[in-house]
Amino acid sequence: MFSERDVSRPSLQKIYGKESDECDRCFREVWTQLIEERRRALARDERNPEIYLHLAGHHAALMEDETALSVLREGLTRCRFSVKLHYAYIEKLRKLNRTQDAIDAIHQALRVFPHDLAIRMKESLILPVIYQTVEEIGYYRRRFWDGLSALAARISLETPESRRDALNAVSAHRNVLLGYQGENDLELQQRYGNLVHRIVAANFPEWADTPPMPGLNGKLRIGYVSSYFLNHSSVVKTFLRWLLMHDRVRFDVHAYQVGQAPDCIADELRRSGMRFAHFSDSVHEVARAVRADRLHVLVFLDIGRSPVMTLLAALRLAPIQCMAWDHPITSGLPTMNYYLSSALMEPPNGQDHYSEKLICLPGVGVCYQKPVIPRALLGKRRPDYGLRDNAILYLSCQSTFKYLPQHDDLFPAIALRLPSAQFVFLTPNHDILKAFRTRLGRAFSVMGLSVDDFCVFLPQQDIFNYWNLNLLSDVFLDTIEWSGGVTTVEAIACGLPIVTLPGRLMRGRHSYAILTQFGVTDTIARDKPDYVNIAVRLGLDHAWRQNVVERFKQGSRVFYSDTCSLSTLEDFYQEAVKQHSSSLSNDHVY
């Protein structure tokens, strides 16, 4: 018998191996059984909001989103005063990109809970997952600005109750979608960061001021904190070698996992000789432990990915605090000193996009570990995904919110010149699929084409099916203004040429940097027409396509063995600590 904690695809894959059909069958059977149990519980206690929450979650696990919404609406009918049910219903609508429906649900919730600051924050800062037009982006950007200004004026921190309510509100908000609008978000992020800092400092005044710099005798103590020190996460794939390869003579390395239970990555970190600690989502627990370790430098790897990471970063847990770019956008926090970036990824005016001081490490800025693609386990063919055997297959597999409407015309422009093209996209749910397909349909229609003739929309894949899909494709099409990072590296490992167009901001230049460091730059486009030309040529010219792939193989040894970014990072840590200590000494003298 399985418990709810057992019913994840990774846990079932451990039981059944990598045969996804058997895993999927078991996954569905177990959730169906849990649904039946919840239904029986509901018959006995129809006014218990927790049962509705669990039941909706079970249906959502099976991608039965309409049923999940129906369950939540039924729960709200019977348990109108359950704030958790209102939260869940609003969040479900938001994830399905039913933004206006979510706003209507927020207004309904505010009629029941007019003083709930968390609901008010949802109303002020809600953003769509995917936009239909450029004008819609502008509308929600202005709405976010106005809502943030109103929140900052509204929030009071004068009483213990008001401080607690404000903390609960920011603890429930994940400020992650703003960066996907393709704009410079410095001012908006600073406004949000200042608000969060004010709230967190009022609730945890003992950790609001900068701690003293520890002495410089012996090793420097460097801490890395993340919510995703987990197998197959982008944090691990991007930054793990920083931690594993640090010079242990010069540095004492600490790793802090916040939130989810640790897995095999924790064992790897411990075996390397560093100190690893796991904490719940308790700000108090983490802050106390990190302060007790008396670090010289603390690095936040994924600010923005989870609320607790933002809350922790808004405190002063070490005298020098840095952020890395798992979520590549400025934190806007007054507590963050440095942004650790890549010399190849940053545009010439990069500093204009950050509240932190920009530190550009050589090359791509990290030491990627070469992906190991288990080809022997990846035996699916194109028909298994509903794809044509005779198509030139273009894989465009980024998260849907990375696709901006002003760039939809790239796909029909390629199709117009290459009728055998087939484009593959991954979408998280039916509503997002429908919205994205409608938007692309307009772009194809303008050129006299049908989206159904060229585009295939697949659900998000587990890691093995995803790699398998890469192996079956011919060309990888990068997104503009927020490009691939790990996805680009893994596509190269699967033998795919990459078409990319570097954007105006660092987050739109990952693939550009990766291809440049590999030494394969002829598929980097100058502009959108050049992007289309390169994509079409790769589709038609098999010999050139193979030549590009072969040059990636030749560049692999140099790319994956390059540790210049790490040695530069270590030198930066030592110099920053020295300068900070010197500054404190001079301040003391005067």
Furnish the topology, listing elements before pairings.
Elements: H1 9-16, H2 20-44, H3 49-61, H4 65-78, H5 83-95, H6 99-112, H7 117-125, H8 134-154, H9 160-171, H10 186-203, E1 220-226, H11 234-245, E2 251-258, H12 264-271, E3 275-279, H13 283-292, E4 297-300, H14 307-313, E5 320-323, E6 338-342, E7 357-361, E8 392-395, H15 410-417, E9 421-427, H16 430-446, H17 451-454, E10 455-459, H18 463-472, E11 475-477, H19 486-493, E12 498-499, H20 510-518, H21 528-540, H22 542-561, H23 564-589
Parallel strand pairs: 1-2, 1-4, 2-3, 4-5, 5-6, 6-7, 8-9, 8-11, 9-10, 11-12
Helix pairs in contact: 1-2, 2-3, 3-4, 4-5, 5-6, 6-7, 7-8, 7-9, 8-10, 9-10, 15-21
Provide a descriptive summary of the structure in words.
It is a single chain. By secondary structure, this protein is of the alpha/beta class. Among the domains are: 207-367 and 564-589, Rossmann fold (3-Layer(aba) Sandwich), CATH 3.40.50.11380; 375-561, Glycogen Phosphorylase B (Rossmann fold). It is built from 23 helices and 12 strands. A 7-stranded parallel β-sheet has the order 3-2-1-4-5-6-7, with helices on both faces. Strand 11 (475-477), helix 19 (486-493) and strand 12 (498-499) form a beta-alpha-beta unit. Helix 7 (117-125) crosses helix 9 (160-171) and helix 15 crosses helix 21 (528-540). The longest helix has 26 residues, at 564-589. The radius of gyration is 25 Å and the shape is globular. It starts with 8 loop residues before the first helix and ends with a helix.
